[in-house]
Fold RNA polymerase II subunit A C-terminal domain phosphatase SSU72.
Amino acid sequence: MHWLLRGPPVVTTKNSSRSSQTSDKRGFSVRSFGTGTHVKLPGPAPDKPNVYDFKTTYDQMYNDLLRKDKELYTQNGILHMLDRNKRIKPRPERFQNCKDLFDLILTCEERVYDQVVEDLNSREQETCQPVHVINVDIQDNHEEATLGAFLICELCQCIQHTEDMENEIDELLQEFEEKSGRTFLHTVCFY
């Protein structure tokens, strides 16, 4: 199975913490993307984010923030996240520019979920292969990102162990909603 974990940032336009918290250490084939027009990382104030083009490498972002305010970006975890990300891939990727096929796409923000569904529905259907798009809102802070990563990992493990994902996923998501107290959005799109 090819899985796409989508949460915003450093791989997207928002939620830098979330996407950096999830990896493929549990045996999943995971890729992370952004959906905005630029990569936005927290800045010195909520209304002053650091904005980068998707062509900017993680190394360039790291060095830029190191130069701007090493203490701030070390304390808020952004430098650590960028250091980890640059060991995984050179730069963020934009979902709308990716033509690969996935079985499952997970988002961590309803706005991103809407953008993904809109993009998939605007593409010309070629293979009619289904892709499940699931959203669970996760606040963009280290604690929520960590808890969200465990929740998403558990969900993926349960999905992986289903005998018939197409017929079991709705019931599984309902169980996760009851267990976690979070609302999950789900739709199926086609390639």
